[in-house]
Amino acid sequence: MLPRAFALVVLTACTSAQAPSGPPKKEAVAPPASAAAPVPPAPAPLVADGGAADAEAPSADASPTAELSDAGSDAAQVAAPYVADNKVLPPESSEELQKRAAALFDAIVNDDPARGESFWFPKEPFVSLKDVKGPDKYWDQLHRTYARDIHALHKKRKSWEGATFEGFELGSKPKWVPPGDEGNKIGYYRTFRGKLRYRIGEKTESIEVRVIISWQGRWFITHLSKFKK
């Protein structure tokens, strides 16, 4: 009895060891190199001065167009080049001329010659232009006359209330005056009897501007009213 029972136990144990308990497990296979997780980029190098690199880098807004615009603005402020012979015919009308004419009208209305200075021929170029004895004193004389003319024109109306500037027009066709023609070392363009037009009430009236000459492409008054030596 014992040997048979022992044999059965041994047979059962061998059978259990050979029978699989479930489906065979697959061995883990390493993924190909292309499927590996991406390697993170290397960190950026540290800036030694704590942000100086950012300060030196141009901003996103600093476009070439913006730089050209700034350059154009600067160039527009630069004065026109000096022309030695002064042979530059100014336009018959321009925004800057109308502004200076309006300032003269304001001077007449308010009986204040200082307001009309921008339309008067400046002293420094006048002294260079004129070929007469004591050109600076001559300018002073003409300048005093200009102030007197403004006072006199103001007195021509009892009231200037409501008077508004309409515009300025040149008179005669501008003529080139060469050096030596009128006691001048430098030539200029000259025009007579310009009109300072204004409106008061329902009427449009005008003030005559006697003599206007050119300097470096702009018009200036040398005689506002008829000049008496």
From TrEMBL:
Residue ranges with Low complexity bias: 45-67
Residue span of region Disordered: 17-74
UniProt organism field: Polyangium fumosum
Superkingdom of this protein's organism: Bacteria
Signal sequence range: 1-19
Lineage, highest ranks first: Bacteria, Pseudomonadati, Myxococcota, Polyangia, Polyangiales
Protein name: DUF4019 domain-containing protein
Keywords: Signal
